[in-house]
Amino acid sequence: MQIEQAMPSTAKNKSLSPKRLRLQRTWRDWDLYLLLVPGALYFILFKYLPMWGVVISFQDFNPFGGIWGSEWVGLQHFETLLQYDGFWRIFRNSIILSMLNLVFFFPIPIILALMLNEVRKRVFKNFIQSVVYMPHFISWVVVAGITYLMLGTQDGVVNEYIVRFGGDQINFLTSSEWFRPLIVLQSIWKEAGWGTIIFLAALSGVDPQLYEAAVVDGANRWRQLWHITLPAIRSTILILLILRLGHVLDNGFEQIFLMLSATTYNVGDVFETYVYREGLVGGKFSYTTAVGLFKSVIGLIMVVLANRLAKRFGEEGVY
């Protein structure tokens, strides 16, 4: 009798079937599963159910007939996209803008997070974080307005100083040479601070005893950064990089649309603006859905290849 009373609950659980054990654990942690419900509903309603609409990319969609009453055309829309005269232009522009953001924008949040991690004054650190976070909450319309006020040829602050120091005005907003740098700089100013949140969270999990041991061994701040801090967030950097490659053809509609002009179409016209013209303005819903599916397939291929490459070099990857 005493032996049965002393038997731990884990030993009793082993006698239960796996199904009953799962039910028992679910009932025990019901409050945690309840917290999961809002997030699960969000993804089901706004992420998974809308995927059914991809079907119309293989149809000549008729809004009055609906999905079931529309004619099936197979891969016709994909053939039309690949035969479009400007396809390679928008494909090239999308890739170039995405790669520029990947090269110049992606490292900035990492550098900011490493710099903030070195700040020891709590008040000063919180102030800097608040300052770099605030641009994230400004809409792209306001960002574009600020850009026009700063870089315009008429009463633009930057051009006024250029002229004051003896230079000639620069058409920042209508020059195809300046369009891509402006897009990247806008992204850095608006989103770099917000992007530091994940890296700061990863840095907060580094064991302080590692730094103490490094100090005892005579390692300076740069050595600690290289041998402790960066390896601690390497997996986080790699996962975010792989996920970013999944959006290799996504550049955001609002920012590009607000900055685009007739003189910058050759370098700024991307898939998002093309879908806007053909889908919303032209009413070609099936065709633009096929364009979106094409982008998603390319992104999926990039994620799978990058994940396999990461695992080949000994990293965990996304899955």
Automatic annotation (TrEMBL):
Where would you find this protein in the cell?
Cell membrane; Membrane
Q: Where are the transmembrane segments?
A: 30-49, 95-119, 131-151, 225-244, 287-306
Q: Where is the ABC transmembrane type-1 domain?
A: 91-306
Q: Which organism is it from?
A: Paenibacillus chungangensis
- Show the Pfam families listed in the entry: BPD_transp_1
What is the protein name stated in its UniProt record?
Answer: ABC transporter permease
Please give the InterPro entries that the UniProt record associates with this protein: MetI-like (IPR000515), MetI-like_sf (IPR035906)
User: From what superkingdom does this record's organism come?
Assistant: Bacteria
Q: Which family does it belong to?
A: Belongs to the binding-protein-dependent transport system permease family.
Record's keyword annotation contains Transmembrane helix: yes
